Amino acid sequence: MQNNFVNRSSRDLEYAGFWVRLAAYCIDSAIVWAGLLFVELVIGIISVGGSRIFQAHLLFRYTLRDIILYVFQVLYFILLTYGTGTTPGKRLLNLRVVNADLSPELTLINVVYRETVGRFLSSIFVCIGYLIIGVDREKRGFHDMLCDTRVVYGKKVKVYPAYPYPPV
Questions:
Q1: Which of 3, 38, 87, 157 has its CA 20 to 30 A from that of 164?
Q2: What are 98-121's pLDDT values in tens digits?
Q3: What is the dihedral of CA 130, 131, 135, 136, to 10 degrees?
Q4: What is the pTM of this model?
Q5: What is the DSSP letter of 165?
Q6: 8 A C-beta contact, residue 98 and residue 85
């Protein structure tokens, strides 16, 4: 896939704000919900045979079912962000995750840290880590600050205004 992001400078960047990132997250959440519904169906079919393995408490009060659902949810964001720099929700809204030095290649460790620990810390205390996206100069949340990433618009799209035809 051709990447036209490489030759852009920092003044060509337009950082993605709070509302567009929230919309992308809502789209991704709907996709994850549909996928997890399928996983729940598979777990339910396996459990019908009388197996109680998915109800056993493994980690504190979390069951194997909870852990499997969390892993699938996190893998969606990790694998897509690492592989393409974007998720389907971000792609629909023309957004991309990049490093602060504008290199499009994200390291796997950085993406895993951003999507797990960073998102957890951003959601603590009434999601203040996400709300600061609206006031930060570079539109970064806590998870972006921790991993030194930015969410920017991917491609500059020229928009031509539609003028009405002159009256006849």
A1: 157
A2: 998 877 688 899 999 999 999 998
A3: -10
A4: 0.78
A5: P
A6: yes
